[in-house]
């Protein structure tokens, strides 16, 4: 996400970013992307990886990371396999070989999210995470640091309540926390079975 794009989107949400430099906002964006990667358990931006198995024998291999954007190359005993000798499932990171293979296997691949997933799922969430972080910090300053422990404040005829929720929201509002959970569920494949 570009800083100018973030500023414009947050302006539509009523979040003032004028107290921050572009470098500070970019640092916050990068930090939130890394935080989200840790929370959902997948690479958001492309990341090159290698899976090596010294004594491989079989017709399929489960890559350690997914989703897979593409496989750069597969080597068996130093020979590069032709792409017609295997297929792979991008979502689960499983490579299927057409023939049974035996020997030293190396798979070089890139993980990350597609541009469409990034644009439709990640960018709006990062925008909201950054906006919440900025707003939370400003509101916490206005409340003299009481925001994490206060459930309501009253002064005169005005009362302000804070929603106390027992659900895991990762330190964000429940809506942002639910979207993070939805993303994690979308990319986690607990039904993957490791062959022994």
User: Describe the biggest sheet?
Assistant: 5 strands, antiparallel
Give the amount of beta strand, in percent. 25-35%
Structural class: alpha+beta
Shape: elongated
Based on DSSP secondary structure assignment, what is the total number of beta strands? 7
Q: Could you list the spans in which at least 5 consecutive residues all have pLDDT below 50? A: 190-196
What number is the mean pLDDT? Answer: 84
Helical run tally: 4
Number of domains: 2
Tell me the span between the first and last alpha carbons: 42 Å
* Rg value: 23 Å
Share of helix, binned = 25-40%
Series of secondary-structure elements, N-terminal to C-terminal: HHEEEEEHEEH
Commentary on this structure:
The chain has 196 residues and is an alpha+beta fold. The protein folds into 2 domains: 3-43 and 114-150 and 172-187, no CATH class; 47-111, no CATH class. Helix content is 36%, strand content 29%. The strands form 2 sheets. Strands 1, 2, 3, 4 and 5 form a 5-stranded antiparallel sheet that branches. Strands 6-7 form a two-stranded antiparallel ribbon. Strand 2 (68-76) and strand 3 form a beta hairpin. Helix 2 crosses helix 3 and helix 3 runs antiparallel to helix 4 (174-187). The longest helix is centred in the middle third of the chain and has 28 residues, at 115-142. The radius of gyration is 23 Å and the shape is elongated.
């Amino acid at each position: 996400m570009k800083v100018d794009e973030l500023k414009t989107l947050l302006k539509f949400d009523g979040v003032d970013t004028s107290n921050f430099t572009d470098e500070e906002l970019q640092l916050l964006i990068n930090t939130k992307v890394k935080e989200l990667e840790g929370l959902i358990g997948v690479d958001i931006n492309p990341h090159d990886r290698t899976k090596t198995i010294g004594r491989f024998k079989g017709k399929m291999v489960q890559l350690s990371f997914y989703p897979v954007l593409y496989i750069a190359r597969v080597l068996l005993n130093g020979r590069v396999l032709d792409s017609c000798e295997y297929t792979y499932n991008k979502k689960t990171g499983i490579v299927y070989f057409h023939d049974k293979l035996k020997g030293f296997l190396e798979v070089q691949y890139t993980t990350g999210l597609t541009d469409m997933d990034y644009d439709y799922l990640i960018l709006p969430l990062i925008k909201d995470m950054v906006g919440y972080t900025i707003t939370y910090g400003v509101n916490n300053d206005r409340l003299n640091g009481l925001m994490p422990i206060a459930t309501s404040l009253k002064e005169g005829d005005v009362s302000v309540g804070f929603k106390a929720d027992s659900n895991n929201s990762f330190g964000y509002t429940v809506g942002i926390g639910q979207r993070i959970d939805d993303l994690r569920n979308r990319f986690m494949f607990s039904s993957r079975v490791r062959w022994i």
